[in-house]
Design goal:
This protein is an alpha/beta fold. It is 29% helix and 10% strand. The chain is built from 9 helices and 9 strands. It has a 7-stranded parallel beta sheet, sandwiched between helices. The chain has a two-stranded antiparallel sheet with strand order 8-9. Strand 8 and strand 9 form a beta hairpin.
Amino acid sequence: MRRRRARAVAAVLAATALHVIGGATAAGAAPPAGACHNPDPAHNQVRAQPWAQQVLDPQRAWPHSRGAGVLVAVVDSGVDADHPQLRRPGKVHRGRDFYLAGALPGAFDCVSHGTGVAGIIAADPVPGIGFHGVAPDAEILPVRINERDVGGQGESLLIDPQVVANGIRYAADQGAKVINLSLAGHNDFPIIRAAVAYAVARDALVVAAAGNAQRDTTTERPVYPAAYEGVLGVGAVDIDGARMPGSQIGRHVDLVAPGVKVLAATRVDGHTYVDGTSFAAPFVAATAALVRAAWPRLTAAEVARRLVATASPARGGRDSNAYGAGLVNPYRAVTDGLDPDRPAALPAYVPQPLDQAQLDRAAWEHGTAVTAKWLVTVVAGGIVLAGLVAAILPRGRRRRWRAGWAAAVPAEPTVVEPPEQIFLISEPKRDR
């Protein structure tokens, strides 16, 4: 079994941990017989609208794009195609299972990790449920590469690099325009690096989780596959826009997205709250699907640049190692510069000949106005001067043109005191 071989591999790709907060029910899924070892139980439905969908508000972009016609590969633990928000015909493809030997499909899930990722990308809106995907008309290609990411004691289980590489190459060969990799590790496996390059060369936009192993706020270590050329690395933030404490930092972080207590679909028919960059990555992958549907002529590299350029500002400022370019913005990514109508052609410019008569008349009118202003100024000055002469001449004659002296200024100004208050009140009558 590949599961045993995977656990024997010395090098590890630490798949991001699934933090489950919701309650479980007794129902169970129905994967192929013997495919799942101790499958996770189902969860209850959550009807409230999640904060991530409120903050990103992808519905604003839906009049322009819902991701139709874009195939998104979810290279993960599989996808439960029977979930009510994923069961629409054509939404989830059969896919392939690279974890177990044989010809099993990828359209089943033992642990809900891949189902949660797929739901964030493309879950259909349904009445009475607030949760939905960012790109509900996108199609999902489930590529199963592991059964579960965490063991019974909470330890990270090993994933065979060859299985991961096979899954990535398969997704590229199937025509996936976006490939979501919700896994991360510090080891640079040449076989995975080559598979990513293979997908990028086939115009697939690869989106990968930045990882959850950060222990401080300064140490930077490259994380793979997020650090590979052509891959968009995604960190996680909470409802306040702050970096999730474990979200890894470094130059491999291109964007951030909701990744703390975000709602995700679970196997069978339910939802649960989850943490991790595993669940931040599909928000970016889904936004890429929206863009690829709205702008089909853009290459994967151009779509990546568009996602980075249209990101909303984050706490770390532009291009920080913790927040990248900022928070992914589905509406701006789709609509910036979007004009569905081609502009009408402008008529050729034909200069009109000068009207010399009109120019001469304008010059004459300007000269007349200037002359009139000067005449008004001269007349007004004459009137003022005549008034001054009329006021001064009689006084000069009376004084026979002798100089006069101004009245002396008293040494101290005379102070007029107010009357005593008693004088303001009539004297009271006395008894006699």
